[in-house]
């Protein structure tokens, strides 16, 4: 059953699609009939729809920090497949370190992927959406964008930049019938989250929280699955959210008390 029939035969561009939330989003979109261009640095294929034998699924290598590659891919998609109606900016990275020990490379890489990479995509796609006077954009931020975290300063700062950029974009594009929103997960069972766990007690420690690191636990007493986050992304992209823009949905089980 297609719960979101508006995606049928429409082109959706998804970044960070090889694993975690991005992959779960692709898996949810395909049964709705969407034509999904799934990008990630883990993929190896170039964009060649004529050679694609997987129907509506187009896995493509893309480094979102390469503005020329982003512009070229967006142009090729529009020329060879058709208009990009929906953009989901999911690609992100996490460098763990105290700010005083954060290297220049870690700082710049965090912003290059988490903020500038999304800007590169949004600018290229939304310029075309503006000409058509329609479209929807959702970017995956983080609850760390609004809550200080020890040893996550570069990540939190870059996600805060992303969040404000998307809201400004939404304000500028509202008159063109283009909606721009954010989904901000908390702890989610992805590879990024698992790298923070030292042993099998990791999930329990996250749920409990840590007074030493000034981190609250999770009131709902569970860690999110990628699919849980995807439900909110799909909603914000869909016509069910037709009057929602500049919004940020926290999906963190109450971990930041709605802040």
Question: How would you describe this structure in keywords?
Answer:
259 residues; alpha/beta; 7 strands; globular
Written account of the structure:
- The chain starts with 10 loop residues before the first strand and ends in an 8-residue tail after the last strand.
- The model has no long low-confidence stretch (mean pLDDT 93).
- It is globular.
- The chain has helices at residues 20-29, 67-80, 104-132, 153-173, 191-194, 202-208, 226-237; strands spanning 11-15, 35-40, 57-61, 84-89, 135-140, 178-185, 248-251.
- With 259 residues, the chain is an alpha/beta fold.
- Helix 2 runs parallel beside helix 3.
- Strand 4 (84-89), helix 3 and strand 5 form a beta-alpha-beta unit.
- The chain contains 7 helices and 7 strands; from the N terminus they run E-H-E-E-H-E-H-E-H-E-H-H-H-E.
- The protein has a 7-stranded parallel β-sheet, with helices on both faces.
Strand order of the largest sheet: 3-2-1-4-5-6-7
Poorly predicted sequence stretches spanning 5 or more consecutive residues: none
Task: Determine the number of helices (DSSP H or I, runs of at least 4 residues).
Answer: 7
Mean pLDDT: 93
Say how many strands there are: 7
Element order, helices and strands? Answer: EHEEHEHEHEHHHE
State the helical fraction.
25-40%
Query: Helices and strands: which structural class?
Result: alpha/beta
State the shape: globular
Kindly estimate the percentage of residues that lie in beta strands according to DSSP: 15-25%
Terminal Cα span: 36 Å
Radius of gyration: 18 Å
Major sheet details: 7 strands, parallel
